[in-house]
Amino acid sequence: MKIFRGFHHPGIAEGCALTIGNFDGVHRGHQAMLALLNSEAAHRGVPSCVLTFEPHPRDYFAGLLKRPELAPARIGTLRDKLAELRQCGVAQAVVLPFNEALARLSPQAFIDEVLVAGLGARYVLVGDDFRFGAQRAGDYALLDAAGRARGFDVARMNSYEVHGLRVSSSAVREALGAGRMEDAARLLGRPYAISGHVVHGRKLGRALGASREGATDGFRTLNLRFAHWKPAASGIFAVLVHGLSDAPLPGVANLGVRPSLDPDDINGGRVLLETHCLQWPAHLGPEGAYGKIIRVELLHKLHDELKYDGLDALTEGIAKDCSDARAYFAAHAATHTETRRQTTRDRI
Length: 348
Prior knowledge:
Blueprint: E1 2-5, E2 16-20, H1 28-44, E3 48-54, H2 57-64, H3 78-87, E4 92-97, H4 100-103, H5 107-118, E5 121-127, H6 140-150, E6 153-157, E7 161-162, E8 165-166, H7 169-177, H8 181-188, E9 193-197, H9 204-207, E10 222-225, E11 235-242, E12 249-256, E13 272-277, E14 293-303, H10 311-331, H11 333-336, H12 344-347
Parallel strand pairs: 1-4, 2-3, 2-5, 3-4, 5-6
Antiparallel strand pairs: 7-8, 9-14, 10-13, 11-12, 11-14, 12-13
Organism: Paracidovorax wautersii
Protein name: Riboflavin biosynthesis protein
Catalytic activity: riboflavin + ATP = FMN + ADP + H(+); FMN + ATP + H(+) = FAD + diphosphate
């Protein structure tokens, strides 16, 4: 999949079958839409294209109004979104920076400058609640009329349901916020996962528990850091880690702001995914994971983040979390012996 920041690039296709949206989570409703888009693109002999935005438009307006509570919880990072779009067979993705200029663009100007002149859209597929342009003034009827006038086809896809439940990013956020990881996986068509580069932290985990009987190097963690990200899920989870070994590694992870740390700590108040592998690969050595891209599947929520009184209490809490995670994997050994990513055909 080719990825473009904006559409003023020589490598971008002169014509495309296009869909537009935030695609947060790339859930099963998105996957069904992308399958239809790919089919329409093949019939027309043009590449399929997703036009998406970064930051999320609601993030932009929350910052503009200085009201962070209006920003949506994010299901996935831009990296994960693009990875899932590639997995769904999309030929090219165009990431538009959502800024003042784009926010002020009228619906007609959006059609003329972005869809026609910028992307050469020959087919445009949107959802049943699609709105666009300044003040969200553009709707399907306006887009359809413009398509007839400018020579591109327009289609609308109705909501996608699973067991009578409308699949949407909002439904996924609600499931993740409530810790219902199995429900989230059903809506996503796969276990919920976050990926990123492993970065250096304080290495506090190496000291925690190192003096416990049978311990050698404490609770070593793999740290993924996110800039300006408000995750839909938070808490302590039993996880599988991909990217360090031929087989996924069971572990326990903390996604959140770690309330037991001093707020003046270098990572205090910042969202971090800290993952401790229950079985550390010997071939990596103590420093071998840094810089690697890993994908962490959050399979089961153990509990919300807790604030512990001191490092001893924190150590005991982590030890219990590890024990509970081992118990979870023992009880679900058959399910997690081998994980399988669904194909797009499986998903719809």
